[in-house]
Amino acid sequence: MSRPAATPRGEAGGARVSDATLREFIGYHMKRAFNGVQADLNQTLKPLGLRMVTYSALVLIVDNPGLRQSQLAEALDVERANLVVIIDELEGRELITRDRVPTDRRAYALNPTLAGRRLYDRALEAVRGHEARILNGMDEEAKQAVIAAMSVIRRGFEGG
Amino acid sequence: MSRPAATPRGEAGGARVSDATLREFIGYHMKRAFNGVQADLNQTLKPLGLRMVTYSALVLIVDNPGLRQSQLAEALDVERANLVVIIDELEGRELITRDRVPTDRRAYALNPTLAGRRLYDRALEAVRGHEARILNGMDEEAKQAVIAAMSVIRRGFEGG
DNA sequence: GTTTTTAGTTATAGATCATAACAGTTATTC
DNA sequence: GAATAACTGTTATGATCTATAACTAAAAAC
User: What is the pLDDT of residues B8-53, one digit of tens each?
Assistant: First the structure.
């Protein structure tokens, strides 16, 4: 079992770690890039008191007023149970309301308040700035190519 | 303050939720695609007893025998403290060894065992299959375009 | 030789996420 | 129309992940 003599890579601190094997994979690049994007987005939203999920939820509620929690949970791809605290947060800040649905007394219709719509506007502007930053000068064609590729990948899971 | 009459979107269950606003953003597409990729990768690695992090760690150790935990932590972008349990797991399964470094008795040199190298081979093969699956027929040019774009995005954070 | 820094570790708290169980309501089915 | 099944939102809980502080041992700096 000749064990390779634990060569400490010569000089201390030098000698970059090679990730050549992992760089073969598109998933590796996606993870590393997305880590940075997520961190930057959350920093961007922090002054508005929003996180990535609460922001996404607010946008979907403003764009789809009256939707149910279960619909929103599915759209956001989170469990109904976990959505509750997210909605609690938005409702507690009076950005949205839970309105009873007359035709189905189990369900709540989610609607934005005026404050919710205003924060939506501000958040969207902030996120557009964030996007411009992360794109880092990338041209529109390259951006659209990425979006198309992401859609191809996603379709592979949803479509079967 | 005319609040839109919480219209429950007519028929129950129908009426797709529109994410048109979010689809403007590349980050949104990246998140949704990556969610699927991550789930599929973990399913792929489960039969080998590996998760995404333990797999990445194993690959880097095989490719960079003798590296220190702190180097690996930085390469994986995890805290030194959190890397400990990952290394414990790999060492417990005798896939790697922690070897004392003669020239620095604080540090451990991480080296793969023969079993570690064999699992590395199997894992790499499995992940190549996973990648082919997620690419979903995408051509090499498109794949390289995505990798280039991810690098541009990542560079924006690292480079400053 | 004292102080400062570093490597690995432990402990801990926060956030995230999946799961099961429950009450109230609606839908189905005989 | 009574019994059964399914669905909506909720609570509780445990697993996992992540960040932070504090500690020991050792090396480096001064």
Answer: 333 334 578 999 999 999 999 999 999 999 999 999 999 999 999 9
- Is the Cβ of B144 closer than 8 Å to some Cβ of chain A? no
Distances (CA, A) of B70 to A48, A90, A141, B98: 36, 40, 39, 13
Asked if the Cβ of residue A59 lies within 7 A of any atom of strand C, the reply is no
Contacts of A109 in chain B (CB under 8 A): 6-8
pLDDT tens string B91-123: 999 999 999 999 999 999 999 999 999 999 999
Question: Rounded distance, CA B79 to CA B85, Å?
Answer: 11
Please name which of B76, B34, B26, B37 lies closest in space to residue A41, comparing C-alpha atoms.
B26
- A115, closest residue in chain B (CA to CA): B1
- List pLDDT tens digits, range A63-94: 999 999 999 999 999 999 999 999 999 999 99
C-alpha closest to that of A96 among A44, A71, A130, A60:
A60
- Nearest Cα to A17, choosing from B57, B26, B97, B37? B57
Query: Does A149 contact B at CB distance below 8 Å?
Result: yes
